[in-house]
Amino acid sequence: MEHTADFILEDDQEHGQALRFSGKLDIMSLGNLDQDLRAIDSAVDVIDLGNVQSVDTVGAWIVHRLSRDHQAAIIGASDEAAQLISAIGAADEPGEVRAPQLIAPLRILNDVGGAVADAFSSILGLIGFIGSLLAASLSVLRNPRSFRFRAMVRHFELVGVSALGIIGLMSFLIGIVIAQQGAVQLRQFGAEIFTVNLVGRLTLRELGVLMTAIMVAGRSGSAFAAQIGTMKLTEEVDAMRTIGVSPMEALVLPRVMAAVLMMPLLGFFASMVSMVGGAVLCAIVLDIPIATFVTTIQQVVPLHDLWVGLIKAPVFGAIVALSGCYQGMLVSGSAENVGLKTTSAVVQAIFMVFVLDAFFAVFFTWVGWG
After folding, report:
1. Rounded distance between C-alpha atoms, residue 225 and residue 77, angstroms
2. Beta pairing partners, 8
3. DSSP 12-52
4. How far apart, in whole angstroms, are the C-alpha atoms of residue 39 and residue 61?
5. Cα(253)–Cα(322) distance, rounded to whole angstroms?
């Protein structure tokens, strides 16, 4: 082939053992040149590129490798070839790449600052998401026929009916634990009868709805994030926008409404089952008949304790659903991001539930329902 790369190895009185290239040292013209060069078992003192017509990156690498392995000088190279060989040689230099290191205090401050910035960014994004949801709600109020009732009913089943078993079991065991631990402590003062007060008030005001919110966040909040996130990756959300369907109305609003409406029912169910668990333990351990337990509950637990739990429940449901849908809408890139956003949805929902529960505790104490 014309201009095919070739070489000869000969003695040179001035330079010693010289390897002289000819033709084009490019990928199209090399052929078996690399194999032939590797078969050279004698020393090479100089590499002559005077008869080389052109050199590309592959040819420059072959020349550089030969020069490196034989400690041979390169002569006769054109300016372009010399620059290319020099650049490849610089890239071949061994070197240790180290990430910039900060001293421990600065690294801690950097991590804390990054976490705070991410938290504020997430809060601002969630506020904007809530605004979009309110706008979608107003649009549905203007045109009620656009609301997807079937989707909401479907999520009633996913959020509520399907969760009854695990929530009931969890609540029953929590009632037993509260009664057992309360009885152990109150027995020291001869006040075991007040175990009934402890179980009734604690489950109705706090643990019933709080543990239910955590369970719903783990089950439904994560499911919302995974479902919407997968739809984002498969471009179903973009397709909905293209055909004029609002994802907020079609995907987010039914899920939020289902969680808001089902949470009070689930919270009430959890509180009742917790008291059943407490009643069973009191009957077995403290010899308090179940009829006496029920009568005492009616006497010592004020009605506003029930209202405290029922007021908090829909707020917790909204937070869980909003966190799941919001994180799902943030999914992008790869399937790995679905898992990350699902985890973020659960963590964010549980954190915000606890923060709001603290605010509710202060508020209800302030209004005289403490």
Report:
1. 61
2. 20
3. ETTTEEEEEEEEEESTTT-TTHHHHHHT--S---EEEEEEE
4. 17
5. 9
Domain residue ranges of the chain, discontinuous segments joined by +:
6-91, 131-366
pTM, whole model, 2 decimals? 0.70
What parts of the chain have a pLDDT lower than 70?
Answer: 1-3, 13, 93-102, 370
Q: Of the CATH numbers 3.30.70.260, 3.30.750.24, 1.10.3660.10, 2.30.30.140, which one belongs to the domain with range 6-91?
A: 3.30.750.24
CA distances from 283 to 61, 173, 275, 288, 292 (A): 86, 15, 12, 5, 9
For β-strands 16-25 and 73-75, DSSP reports them as unpaired
Q: What is the pLDDT of residues 203-216, one digit of tens each?
A: 998 889 999 999 99
Rounded Cα–Cα distance for residues 16 and 13 (Å):
6
C-alpha distances in Å from residue 277, one per residue of 172, 203, 273, 284: 5, 11, 6, 11
Give kind and range of the element (H or E) at residue 119. helix 104-142
Distance CA 369, CA 237 (A): 45
**Paired tokens of 357:** 């529960």
Go through 103-127 and write b for each residue having 16 or more CB atoms within 10 A of its CB, e for each that does not: eeeeeeeeeeeeeeeeeeebeeebe
CB 187 within 8 Å of CB 282: no
Strands (E), the chain: 6-12, 16-25, 46-55, 73-75
Q: Name the token pair of 4.
A: 């095919």
Could you give the CA distance from residue 258 to residue 163 in angstroms, rounded to a whole number? 13
Tokens standing for residue 290:
């179940």
Compute the C-alpha angle 130/307/318, nearest 5°.
Answer: 15
Beta bridge partners of 9: 19
